[in-house]
Design brief:
The complex is a heterodimer of chains A (315) and B (647). By secondary structure, chain A is α/β, with parallel strands linked by helices. Chain A has 11 helices and 6 strands. In chain A, helix 1 runs parallel beside helix 4, helix 4 crosses helix 10 and helix 6 packs parallel to helix 11. The termini of chain A are far apart. Chain B is an alpha/beta fold and 647 residues long. The chains are: A alpha/beta (315), B alpha/beta (647).
């Protein structure tokens, strides 16, 4: 299957999954059941930003499914592929929203934090603007081994990047002894691939909060994220159609995707880097993130990311 | 003349009406006087290859004469006529290449001609298997020149095929026995075989034509381009302007028209000569404005940014502006109507080549041995003619457009390097382009080439086709008069990316290029062949597997016929926007537009309607994409299997 068809396939899979969960929750809870993410003023942020539509109930989600459908046009053209990627993002947001609609705290029993609240985003705003956080790394999937995963994450951490983890790489990070937490700038999102939407939602809300972009002006959002949010994706392990279509969504937002497997490469957008020692350098160059490093020869890692670290008694 | 629309170009239309007012004739007037073309000639059914004839075959099968006096059928006559067109086109390009090789042979450190691109010289020497170690640059240049010259008439062996040809393609040519021997020999072979009583089999003759055309594309033209780069520098991206609006009111306007850069390069140099600039002041002009037309215009524009006055059908109109002091020509595509036309104005029409004397012209023979002095003499003539300009008769149209030009393959690679991630790939390859093609961001690539032809509305087809292609994310490379049509229409400007589809526009933005790349003159189509071959090699496939097509929307010359043949033989589908004189033979039409695909993996398409041709090209590109997807998948599978077997 060619790259574009893979994206369309993944988007259709995401749509089907979204349709399934929406149907189920309507049956279980009824159309008027409330849908909302915790601690946000922006409803379902991705949908709100893209369309200006404020989704409040489970019944509203049916309308959101139409947005997804309208974004999937299976003619092999770049704009269709990017839109298809965005459709997957919307599907993911729907699926995640249903999680929050059906349970009080769906991420209770997971290391992932799920939805990122508005206050957290506001707290990240200043260091992002000042360049104190030089970039946002979104790590997805499962690296070849925990050691390699840990090396990559710690490298980002030492460079002050904000790193989000989705999938099995969370467990690998734990195994490799990576310390996580907002103040340490390593944030596990969740095991499901759809939880990656919570970082997309961060970028989108950055445009709403700091960029003052008007809801409904999708192109303005895409321009903002491309120019102002220095994010990129590292996709590890074999890629399903769904993940590839998520990647297309990232590319639509202006975020390059760097994989550790063979993919049909698109210069500056979709790249293969099998050598884990080069993952970080490759990613930073792809997103044009330049870090001035003054290396201090000390036996422990040194970076702003460790500022909030607490030394516990046991340590 | 009636009010029929003759051109898509405003400047051209304005000057056609000035011609009417001035009472001078143009190609369009002569076309009208010609009335309907002869149906036999138009279908290729007229033979005058011996004195038993002329013979003509009835275009209706089974009715009227079905054979010539010798018994030659429509198939034989049509294919012979076509083969001779190929031979003529090949000889034109190849003789051009030969001249350039001779110039390289006389290059010297302090001479008129020197080596501007040593790196290219080393590259070419290497590919020809010439030892380069510890050699004086000029000794090496002379060796390369000698090698090139020998390619024209070596008695044994085959033409040295450049390494840009994929292995599969080379083997296919060998299997079909269409690897050219010596360049001149192939032309002679066609002249022999088309003689009365010789070859009388359409398919065999077409096969010969392919071999002859390959001698052009990978011999004469290829060498012409490479050696021109060695002598005058490999083009780099630069800005220029195009259309008759580039002529200036207060400058001595010189138009360079023709093909060989040996002349035009020297004129450009001479136009900066201090002595001549003094003379310019004396005659009261503000400067010398050298502009180009047709392929010699393309050559100096690619290398020096010299402005383009216009393309083939505008050559008379340049004179009709009344603002041109001299039209300086060498060879090929020069209207013999020009001397008479020039007489109606103050313009000096100057021929320079012993290969193309034109009655009524001022002939100042250009001698390569004293090139600079020759060029100075020519420029001096132009300057002295400035005082004869009748300002009342001057009309310079306002139309001109900005263009970014100079896209040699090296320049393209330099631009592609901008998007290479230094931690993944080495720079200096076409890989980013190959990636954009395989991923589908670019749907394909099309070469738009060829001439103008008054059978069509001037420039219209080319512009329509180019616009349709770029809107559909198909990148366009252009050469010759087609590239100039694009330049005049503003399509070579980086701004033109707004007319491109999202995929192409994104690529243009990232790589910093216009959506249409000007790759040079007609011999520079060899650059396109090199580009396609290198991309195919990167992907491990043959040219014919790529989503790449070519089109000559308004072709006219026999050179275009030769080009079409070598492009098809290279595995690239080729559209002809003007019906060639073959329709009298169903057999020949069937071979060229159908059966030839079984031989070389590509065929001709004849479609005069530019919109229909565009649709067909897009369909074909998408078909090739689907086939390529499958091919790449199979390759991946077999690689996986091989890996599994190893384990």
């Amino acid at each position: 299957m060619n790259l574009f068809q893979t994206v369309f396939t993944g988007s259709n899979q995401a749509l089907q999954a979204a349709q399934g969960v929406v149907k189920q929750i309507i049956e279980e809870k009824g159309r008027d059941h409330k849908v909302a993410f915790p601690d946000t003023a922006y409803f379902l942020p991705v949908i709100y930003a893209a369309t200006g539509i404020k989704i409040k109930t489970v019944g509203d989600l049916e309308g959101a499914l139409d947005i997804v459908k309208s974004l999937i046009v299976e003619e092999e053209k770049l704009e269709n592929v990017l839109n298809s990627g965005l459709s997957t993002a919307v599907s993911a947001e729907i699926i995640e929203a249903v999680k929050y609609a059906s349970q009080e705290n769906p991420y209770e029993n997971e290391p992932g934090i799920g939805f990122v609240s508005d206050p957290i985003i506001r707290s990240l705003g200043v260091p992002l603007v000042t360049g104190d956080i030089p970039g946002v790394a979104v790590l997805l999937g499962e690296a070849v081994d925990s050691e390699s995963a840990g090396k990559v994450i710690k490298d980002y951490q030492s460079k002050g990047l904000l790193t989000f983890l989705t999938g099995k790489i969370i467990d690998q990070a734990v195994e490799a002894g990576v310390k996580m937490g907002l103040e340490l700038r390593v944030i596990p999102l969740g095991y499901d691939v759809t939880s990656v939407i919570h970082v997309v939602s961060v970028a989108i809300r950055a445009a709403l909060i700091f960029g003052n972009v008007e809801p409904g002006k999708l192109n303005d959002f895409l321009t903002y994220t491309k120019n102002r949010v220095p994010a990129f994706v590292n996709a590890f392990g074999p890629l399903s159609e769904l993940v590839v279509s998520c990647g297309a969504g990232a590319i639509a937002l202006g975020f390059p995707v760097i994989c550790d497997t063979e993919v049909p490469e698109v210069p500056t957008c979709l790249l293969t880097q099998k050598d884990y020692d080069k993952t970080v350098k490759t990613s930073l160059e792809a997103r044009n993130i330049k870090i001035k490093v003054t290396e201090i020869p000390i036996p422990v890692a040194f970076a702003a990311a460790f500022e909030g670290e607490r030394i516990r008694k046991d340590d | 003349m009636d009010d029929k629309i003759l051109t898509a170009d405003k400047a051209t239309a304005e000057l056609i009406s000035k011609a009417k007012n001035d009472g001078v004739e143009t190609v369009w007037d002569r076309q009208q006087i010609m009335k309907a073309p002869c149906g036999f000639g138009e279908k290729g059914l007229c033979c005058r290859l011996c004195a038993m004839g002329p013979c003509r075959i009835s275009p209706t099968p089974g009715k009227g004469a079905q054979k010539g006096l010798c018994g030659a059928t429509a198939d034989v006559i049509v294919s012979r006529n076509l083969a001779r067109m190929v031979a003529a086109g090949t000889s034109a390009h190849s003789d051009h290449g030969r001249s350039i090789a001779h110039v390289l042979h006389m290059a010297s450190k302090d001479g008129n001609y020197t080596v501007k691109d040593e790196r290219k010289l080393l590259e070419v020497a290497k590919r020809l298997g010439i030892e380069t170690e510890n050699k004086d640059m000029f000794d090496l240049a002379h060796e390369v020149a000698e090698y090139a010259l020998n390619e024209y008439g070596k008695p044994f062996g085959k033409l040295t095929i450049p390494p840009s040809v994929p292995e599969q393609r080379r083997k296919l040519w060998e299997k079909l026995d269409i690897v050219p021997r010596a360049i001149d020999r192939e032309v002679v072979a066609i002249m022999h075989s088309t003689h009365m009583g010789c070859m009388a089999d359409a398919e065999s003759l077409i096969t010969m034509s392919l071999r002859t055309a390959l001698a052009d594309g990978y011999g004469g033209s290829y060498m012409g381009t490479e050696i021109s780069d060695i002598l005058f520098g490999t083009p780099v991206a630069r800005s220029t302007e195009a259309n008759l609006g580039v002529l200036e009111h207060n400058a001595v306007n010189i138009i360079l028209h023709g093909h060989e850069p040996a002349l035009s390069e020297m004129i450009v140099l001479a136009a900066d000569d201090a002595e001549l600039l003094k003379l310019v002041k004396e005659v009261g002009a503000e400067g010398i404005n050298v502009t180009g037309m047709c392929c010699t215009g393309n050559e100096v524009m690619m290398r020096h940014g010299v402005k383009i006055a216009g393309n083939f059908l505008q050559q008379e109109l340049a004179v009709i502006t009344g603002a041109v002091e001299a039209v300086v020509v060498d060879v090929q595509c020069i209207f013999p109507a020009l001397p008479e036309l020039a007489e109606a104005y103050h313009t000096k029409f100057i021929t320079t080549s012993p290969k193309a004397r034109i009655t009524g012209a001022t002939h100042i023979e250009f001698d390569e041995a004293t090139a600079y002095e020759s060029a100075k003499n020519i420029v001096r003539e132009a300057i002295l003619n400035y005082k004869n300009r009748n300002k009342e008769k001057v009309f310079i149209p306002g139309s001109k457009n900005h263009a970014t030009v100079g896209f040699s393959n090296r320049t393209i690679i330099n631009h592609l390097d901008k998007v290479v991630n230094s931690h993944i790939d080495p720079t200096g390859t076409f890989k980013p382009l190959a990636d954009c093609l395989t991923s589908g961001v670019l749907r394909g690539a099309v070469g738009v080439v060829g001439c103008n032809n008054p059978k069509k509305v001037h420039d219209q087809s080319m512009i329509e086709i180019i616009k349709t292609m770029i809107a559909n994310d198909i990148i366009v490379v252009a050469t010759g008069c087609a590239a100039q049509a694009a330049a005049k229409a503003g399509l070579l400007s980086k701004d033109a990316r707004r007319l491109a589809g999202k995929g192409l526009a994104t690529v243009c933005e990232l790589v910093d290029i216009p959506p249409v790349l000007h790759m040079g003159s007609c011999v520079d189509i060899s650059r396109i062949m090199e580009l396609v071959g290198e991309v195919a090699k990167l992907l491990g496939v043959d040219n014919c597997d790529l989503p790449v097509v070519g089109i000559a929307p308004e072709w006219m010359s026999e050179k275009a016929v030769a080009i079409g043949h070598y492009v098809v033989a290279s595995g690239i589908d080729t559209w002809l926007g003007i019906t060639p004189p073959i329709m009298g033979s169903e057999e020949v039409v069937d071979i060229l537009t159908n059966r030839i695909e079984e031989m070389v993996g590509a065929k001709f398409f004849i479609e005069e309607d530019p919109m229909k041709a565009s649709r067909q090209m897009i369909e074909r590109i998408e078909l090739k994409r689907r086939r390529l997807d499958k091919k790449m998948e199979l390759k991946d599978l077999s690689m996986e299997e091989a890996a599994a077997a190893k384990e």
